[in-house]
Design a protein that fits this description.
9 strands; 135 residues; TolA/TonB C-terminal domain; elongated; two-stranded antiparallel sheet; 3 helices
C-alpha cells in the first residue's frame, strides 16, 4: 500500500536501479529543480494506482515490511528519481517498492501558477494478509 507520511528529514539513498546524478553534478541549479511539498502552492496528486508485487520468498514467510521512499517528481508528473530513506526489514522489499513507485504518475505540483518539480516522501507497506500480487 502506498501512502503519504509526514515529511521527514533523512538522508536519501538512491536506489541502484534508477539513474541518479553523481554528487558533484548536484549543483545549486539541480537543487532548485525540485521543491519540497511545503514549498508549493498545489502539491502533486497521484493519477493512477499501482499494485505492489510481493517478493515470493517474503510472502511464503508471511513477512511484513514498511519503507519510506523519497520521490523526485518532474514538472510533467513523472517520477524522475527514487531514494530509499528507510526499509524495515532491510534488503527485502526495496526492489518491489521502487518498481511500483516508478510506475506512479502524478498531476504536477504548482508554484505561482507554474508547474514545478517536487520531492515527495511516501510510505509503502507490505502485508501478506492484504490483497497481493506475487510473481
Amino acid at each position: 500500500m502506498l501512502t503519504e507520511p509526514e515529511p521527514q528529514a533523512a538522508a536519501p539513498r538512491p536506489h541502484p536501479s534508477l539513474p541518479v546524478a553523481d554528487a558533484p553534478a548536484r549543483s545549486e541549479a539541480a537543487k532548485e529543480k525540485y521543491f519540497s511539498v511545503r514549498e508549493v502552492d498545489v502539491p502533486p496528486r497521484p493519477l493512477n494506482e499501482v499494485d505492489l508485487v510481493y517478493p515470493r520468498r517474503a510472502y511464503e514467510l508471511r513477512m511484513r515490511g514498511k519503507l519510506l521512499l523519497q520521490l523526485s517528481i518532474s514538472d510533467a508528473g513523472v517520477v524522475d528519481e527514487i531514494a530509499v530513506l528507510e526499509a524495515n526489514p532491510p534488503g527485502v522489499f526495496e526492489d518491489a517498492a521502487v518498481a511500483a513507485a516508478s510506475a506512479l504518475r502524478f498531476s504536477p505540483a504548482e508554484k505561482y501558477g507554474q508547474r514545478v518539480g517536487t520531492r515527495l516522501t511516501i510510505e509503502v507497506t507490505f502485508d501478506p494478509y492484504e490483497k497481493i500480487n506475487t510473481p
